[in-house]
Design goal:
Blueprint: E1 13-22, H1 27-38, E2 47-51, E3 57-66, H2 69-81, E4 85-88
Antiparallel strand pairs: 1-3, 1-4, 2-3
Helix pairs in contact: 1-2
C-alpha cells in the first residue's frame, strides 16, 4: 500500500488564487501585497478583476507559480485573516 499524498498538485505549478472584498478600497493592492509576501516577483498581468453585478464587491484572481502546499496554506491564512477579505479560494 502506498503512502497518502499531502497534495493533489505537482509543484511547482500555476495556481489561481481568488479573493473577494469590497470594491473601491484598493482591494487589488491588498491582495497583491499579501500574496507577494509569499510569492515574490508575481506577475501583475496575471491578475483579473471582476466586479459583482451590483458593483459593491470585486473578485480578484491572481495566478502564481506555487512552489509547495505550505506556501499556499500560508497565503490563504494571511488572506483570510485580513479585514478587507470576505473570502478566499
Amino acid at each position: 500500500m502506498s503512502a497518502p499524498q499531502d497534495s493533489l498538485f505537482e509543484f511547482p505549478c500555476q495556481f489561481p488564487l481568488k479573493a473577494m472584498g469590497r470594491a473601491g478600497c484598493d482591494f487589488e493592492s491588498v491582495v497583491v501585497e499579501i500574496v507577494s509576501r509569499h510569492a515574490p516577483g508575481i506577475d501583475a498581468t496575471a491578475m483579473s478583476i471582476r466586479p459583482s453585478r451590483g458593483g459593491k464587491w470585486i473578485a480578484v484572481t491572481l495566478t502564481i507559480e506555487a512552489q509547495s502546499k505550505p506556501q499556499l496554506d500560508a497565503i490563504y491564512r494571511d488572506l483570510s485573516a485580513h479585514e478587507l477579505v470576505v473570502w478566499a479560494l
